[in-house]
Design brief:
This protein is α/β, with parallel strands linked by helices. It is built from 15 helices and 9 strands. Strands 5-4-6-7 form a 4-stranded parallel sheet, with helices on both faces. A hairpin with a 3-residue loop joins strand 8 and strand 9. It is an enzyme of class 2 (transferase).
Length: 296
């Protein structure tokens, strides 16, 4: 007699077969058009399990973003801000010895899934407040997240910068035997919304609309605004997450220390981010590369 898990996997395989399918940018997996977004086949089971099984806690914090929108920076900032009262000194902070993706795990990687499933992470024993990351569009989040009082911090970015970052990133992580995705091919796919968790515009609009309806539920950030006035936005994030800085903390330059700790330059130079693999398949250094594309 088949186990419940095996039956569930079989049902999901059948569902995948019935969905429209396209090649992913890295060309090592497929994209399924699932609930109006392009779900990577390697995350498909995890996304299904996430929707059905995850039970949010009132204190949970979710860092939401479309891929390659400054996700790792926002994860670092959010994790440090929400836990800033738990560390007597930022000089021995967990961020110095752990990659932000490890401190703020993706739902899509931990709730079920296949080879990327983290067997060592037990959601019930995580220290509260639990901080998670997700690329899943708002309409496809579990009811427990949408209906609870947990907080969502979302970031959007200029689509041109997002496209360039994504194109460079996927070409870096692809296997050597896979041919490079040309700029023209990637641009056409991007404009058609065909990318991991795309289309980018519907992802952005989903969180924007929820922010308009429930500003205390979803904080909608813009990458360029965050970069332009990081000090003010750190305060905004802290206030939104109900952990504002005290006058003493501000006078002791805690905000400035957090900004420095979470800066691109600081994280890029940490040994934990210069070497090693994330989920056994992606070099951590690939998360910390500034991408530029000159036109004309």
């Amino acid at each position: 007699m088949a186990s419940i898990g095996a039956q569930q996997a079989n049902d999901e395989d059948k569902l995948g077969v019935s969905l429209r399918r396209e090649n992913a940018w890295a060309d090592t997996y497929h994209l399924y058009l699932f609930e109006n977004f392009w779900c990577p086949s390697i995350h498909f089971q995890a996304v299904n399990n996430f929707q059905k099984e995850f039970q949010a806690k009132e204190s949970d914090v979710v860092v939401a973003s479309f891929p390659k929108l400054g996700t790792i920076w926002l994860k670092a900032l959010t994790f440090v801000i929400v836990n800033h009262q738990s560390f007597s000194s930022l000089e021995d902070h967990l961020l110095l010895t752990s990659n932000p993706h490890e401190l703020v795990p993706f739902f899509e990687f931990i709730i079920g899934g296949n080879y990327i499933h983290n067997q060592n992470l037990h959601l019930s024993t995580m220290t509260e407040p639990r901080v998670f990351g997700t690329h899943t569009p708002f309409p496809s989040l579990p009811k427990s997240i949408k209906e609870s009082n947990c907080k969502i911090v979302y970031i959007c970015r200029n689509p041109f910068d997002n496209f360039v970052s994504a194109w460079n990133y996927f070409n870096k992580i692809k296997p050597v035997i896979v041919s490079e995705l040309t700029l023209e091919e990637a641009f056409e796919m991007y404009c058609n919304g065909i990318m991991d968790y795309g289309p980018w515009w519907s992802d952005m609009l989903g969180y924007w609309e929820e922010n308009m309806v429930r500003p205390n539920k979803v904080l909608f950030l813009k990458y360029d605004d965050l970069k332009g006035d990081i000090n003010q936005h750190v305060k905004i994030i802290a206030k939104f997450l109900d952990c504002p800085f005290s006058e003493e903390e501000e006078s002791n330059e805690m905000i400035e220390s957090i900004i420095k700790l979470c800066s691109f330059e600081k994280m890029k130079d940490l040994e934990v981010n210069k070497s090693g693999m994330y989920k056994g398949s992606i070099e951590k250094k690939n998360f910390f590369r500034k991408e530029r594309l000159e036109i004309g």
